[in-house]
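Thread: Transmembrane protein, structure

OP (GT): Posting the sequence first so everyone is looking at the same thing. Length is 151 residues per the record. Can we get the C-alpha cells written out before standup tomorrow? I want them in the notebook alongside the other entries.
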Amino acid sequence: MATEMQLYCVASLLRRGRSLDQLSTGLALLGVLLGLGPWWLATFNPWALAVGCGLLMLGAMQKYWALRVAFDADLFQRLADNPSALDDNTQALDQALASLGLQAAERGGRPWPERSRGALALLRRQALALAAQLLLALGCLLASPWWTTAG
C-alpha cells in the first residue's frame, strides 16, 4: 500500500515536468524562428528549416508527455491529500478514468507502486523529448558556422 509521503513525493516529482515543459516551449519558439526567420529575410536555408521543424516536432512530443504528467501530478496530489480514504478514492478514480475512456476497465485496481512507476516513466519520456530538443538546438549552434559554406 502506498503511504501518504510516497504519494506526495511522486506528485512533487511530477510537478517538475512543468519546468521541463517551459524550457521545451522556449526551444520550440527557437525552432519557429529558425524555420521562418530566413524567409522573413528573403533567404532560404534548408538546414535552418530542417532544424526548426525538428525542434517543433520534438516540442510537440514533449508537450504531449507534459500534459499526461501534469494530469498525473494532479491525481497523485489529490490522493495524497486524503490518505485515509485511499482505497475508496482509488476505486472512484478507476471508475472515473474508465468512464472517460482514459483507462481500460481491466487496468483498474493496480497497486500504487506500479502506478507510481508508470507515472514516473511518463516524466522520463518527457525529459527524453526535451533532451533530444536540447541536443538538436546545441547541434544547430555548433554547426551554424558551416552552414554558409555548405549551403
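GT: Both are above now. Quick notes for whoever picks this up: The chain is about 80% helix and 0% strand. The chain has one domain: 4-144.
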